[in-house]
Records
---
Amino acid sequence: MVSDWKSRIFLALVILAIALGLASTGMAQECFSGTEIDAPTAKALESAAQQFYEMSAQGDVAGLRANAVPDVAASFGGIERAVVSHKVYFAQGPPAETRIFLLDASSSKTNWQRADFYCGIYNSPGRIGVSIPNLPPGRYALTIARVAGKEPATLTLVLAEAGRNTWKLAGYYARANSLGDHDGQWFLSKAREYKAKGETHNAWFYYLTVWDLMAPVDFVSTPALDKLSDESQAARPADLPSAEAPMQLAAGGKTFKVVDLSAVPVGTELYVRAQYDSASTVTPATASQDNAAIIKALLGKYPEMREAFGGVIARATDGSGHEYLTLTAMKDIK
């Protein structure tokens, strides 16, 4: 899951711009789906999507790399980790649904600063918007395969045409659609509940979790996701810390600068994580003591977090790029 709130805000603004049609019309490209795609191309795309899905289910990293465009194959570490960590989801069986969109960005001889595609009838439930930065000219496809098993998940692929009806892997995005026994709708209900109670931080992090569980990728918008973006942005707390405006947190006789608060999954639970600046993390005993103090101080400032999260992570980082993590289950924090 993505945890950087600044990135999320940027993505939400991009999505909102797409939804309102504010992107430059000169940059909009053509998108085709369903019967709009000619039969040979549709058949080739369906075959490629199925092949890459089966490779994902088998954990076939080598096969996926061999079928990727050169730039992606040359830097495959992130995709390899995604394949390995999500294999269990796709091994549950074939997807319940696979949506395929043909994206035509072949009308230019130079890279698009941002290529925007609008697929389907505007504001219809099946409409999607796709925004891809720095896209070279050519024809692409977006495939979204949803698994409806015990552990639902989504596999989204970007494919690039590498010859007539030959499609190569150009992007790989795997996401779980539930956390433990709870899906996005459950987290949305809880986010609204926390918002109604004035527990803004709980609400905000739950809204972000809803996004991670419901959105196939961050560069796609739908009417439902547009509404979610609007609702979540309205719930954003005004005092979220950043490197430019850190939270001053008194803990253990010291004052620490917390530069980020985020929520991350740990097993089947959601933990809140506080990252703060430390003079040094090379002395484990001191770093551990500081982390323990930060955890208690955070819950002292926001006691409502005890109900919403399974635990707290304190992340100390120093100027040398070192870090020291302490992860504590909520039941163990007195």
Note: The first strand starts at residue 28 and ends at 33.
---
Amino acid sequence: MSDSPTPRGDKRQRTRRALIAATLAVVEERGFAGASLEEIARRAGMSRGAIYSNFADRSELLMAAVTTQGMTLDRDFSRPLPLKAQLRRFAENLVDQLPIAAGTGKLVVDYQLYAMTQPELRERLGEVYARSFAVIAGRFETQYGPALGGRAHTLALAVQALAMGFVWQFMLTPREVTPAAVVEAFEALADGMASHRPPGPAD
């Protein structure tokens, strides 16, 4: 009985995983600046052509490798919950992910610092964040509409900034970043947005 053929998609995913693993290994040894495509391809046992068949360029490969590391936050704000409960739920998920973020924090920080020195990579990273903010803002707008104090995009940006701030602070002073403090901060953000209503036509 012959083995069933391997789906083409599975082979592509294995190739991508192998290239990402090789990228992370090379970055660990040589840093982002020293991670050449030639060395990554050699480490993966492939050609540069295999890289370009799976990733547009070096920047996309580096970004794909970094995004496999670190925490996985649930940014689905479409659940039918009051804003305070919505942000409390997000905060609790963030608390659970903080130890994971601390374990891979240096890699992510190094990548962000490197991206700041590379205009193309920085622009691409900015585009990724912009798309994320647009999606989250859309969910906030759909959920809360006129009842939301301030712009939905501002809230999306604040959620991201507050979360990343806690990640960085946790890496520096983990004992200070208690679960209660994280939840309290996000609840305060929800209260602040709820208490500052946009002025109505009669105001």
Note: Residues 83-195 form a domain with the Tetracycline Repressor; domain 2 fold (CATH 1.10.357).
